[in-house]
Amino acid sequence: MRLDQAVARLFGLSRTVAAELIEAGDVLVDGATRAKSEKITANAWLEVTLPPPATPPPAAPQPVPGLDIVYEDDDIVVVDKPVGVAAHPSPGWTGPTVIGGLAAMGRTIATSGAAERQGVVHRLDVGTSGLMVVAKSEHAYSVLKRAFKAREVEKRYHAVVQGHLDPLRGTIDAPIGRHPTHDYRWAVVSDGKPSITHYDTVEAFPTASLVDIRLETGRTHQIRVHMSALRHPCVGDLMYGADPTLAARLGLTRQWLHARALGFLHPRTGEEVRFVSDYPDDLTRALAILRS
Length: 292
Fold this sequence. Notes:
The structure is a single chain. With 292 residues, this protein is of the alpha+beta class. It has three domains: 3-48, Structural Genomics Hypothetical 15.5 Kd Protein In mrcA-pckA Intergenic Region, Chain A (Roll), CATH 3.10.290; 59-150, Pseudouridine synthase; 151-291, Pseudouridine synthase (2-Layer Sandwich). It contains seven helices and 13 strands. A hairpin with a 7-residue loop joins strand 8 and strand 9. The chain starts with a helix and ends with a helix.
């Protein structure tokens, strides 16, 4: 295995960052620097000096058009996130965030968690719309974090994928990790984290299918990676191999993927709560074209 590949996998870094560390002399193999392309052998002694993590500032209040509050009480706030909005600030992201949008609405959220993602108990991709719950109380933060970790939260998505899945209903159990050659992408890899996706075809069209998806785990890009691995990428998801011609015909500039339903036990009352989100306009239009 190449040195840059080994460093990337061992420390969860991108290949670019791993290569930069090697070139800066921050990676030693048996006490000496090596080229990033050099092969490393078993039992080699690897010393890596990692830079301190970049810490973005806490989210500043910033109005977010289209960010709607679906439900709110003293412990939680459930929002319908529009496309193009991140869950929280992160290095390199200068666009709108859910946390900044809630601050602009005058909402106070839990202070638990890193400064830039206080109150955030789960995330949605920037290019995915739909439901998110944010903790307002410290008690809710602790309870919901445990519930997500224990896989006790119902996370249901709708996706339009290319072609027709075979079988029409099934489970994808395939580990996901960083893509071995492409930064910012993820892939099914043998040494990835366990990842389980359940799917059921709702409606079939000549060139695509509407699929109901339930996540058992919550890896980055999980649905997009698993569907791409089956050679049925989400329509419009050019990063993971979708047909650009079909995306253009449907007027899509992002993947057809929506966090449709979210269900969990309320952290204060213990009662089951469930929320459902309608499709946004761009996904509704694309679906109408497929049905016509």
